[in-house]
Amino acid sequence: MPTAAKKMLFILSKATIENVYAAFIMANGARMEGIESEIFFTFFGLEAIQKKKLEHLHVATVGNPAMHMPTLLGGLPEMEALATRMMKKEMEKLDIPPVGEFLEILSDSGVKLWGCKLAVDMFHLKKEDLIDDLDGIITVGDFYARADTDNTHMLFV
């Protein structure tokens, strides 16, 4: 008989609003259920923890089948900005906090937040470029080693 999850490890590789909030909401939900939770920000997912970028994330309108619009339409000028404004407006109605505030909530609730060393080096970022609540910059191997308990689940968002 399966046992309940004890630890959730999320890998965030894209900093579109829909990916970031999916990871944040799942990590937060895990903590609310008493499950350990960690997020590993890699490649473009690092934008969600960069001080200068985290409040300027966008909805992906091109190549996003969930938008239910032709790619050409999604690429029109201002379409991404319009979709982003609409998404943020709907999230405000539901009292979903902005990215920076949500990161603080996650950290305060015990969610571990990790930057990917390879991606940090590749994008020439410094620790000072990233949020203060970051638990560290670690390698992929270090992150995998964090799956050190039974009933640990890893999700790629």
Protein architecture, described:
With about 160 residues, this protein is of the alpha/beta class. The chain has a domain at about 5-55 and about 100-155: 3-Layer(aba) Sandwich (Hypothetical Protein Ychn, Chain: A), CATH 3.40.1260.10. It is built from 6 helices and 5 strands; from the N terminus they run βαβαααβαβαβ. A 5-stranded parallel β-sheet has the order 4-3-2-1-5. Strand 1, helix 1 and strand 2 (about 35-40) form a beta-alpha-beta unit. The model has no long low-confidence stretch (mean pLDDT about 90).
Biggest pleated-sheet summary = 5 strands, parallel
Question: What's the CATH class of the domain at 7-55 and 98-156, please?
Answer: Alpha Beta
Strand order of the largest sheet: 4-3-2-1-5
| Rg estimate, integer Å | 16 Å
Instruction: List the uncertain runs.
Output: none
Shape: globular
Report the helical percentage.
25-40%
**Which structural class best describes the helix and strand composition?**
alpha/beta
Q: What's the total helix number?
A: 6
Find the CATH topology of the domain at 7-55 and 98-156.
Hypothetical Protein Ychn, Chain: A
Name of the CATH homologous superfamily of the domain at 7-55 and 98-156: DsrEFH-like
Q: What are the secondary-structure elements, in order, as H or E? A: EHEHHHEHEHE
Distance, first to last CA? 27 Å
- Beta-strand proportion: 15-25%
Task: Please identify, by name, the CATH architecture of the domain at 7-55 and 98-156.
Answer: 3-Layer(aba) Sandwich
Number of strands: 5
The pLDDT mean sits at 91
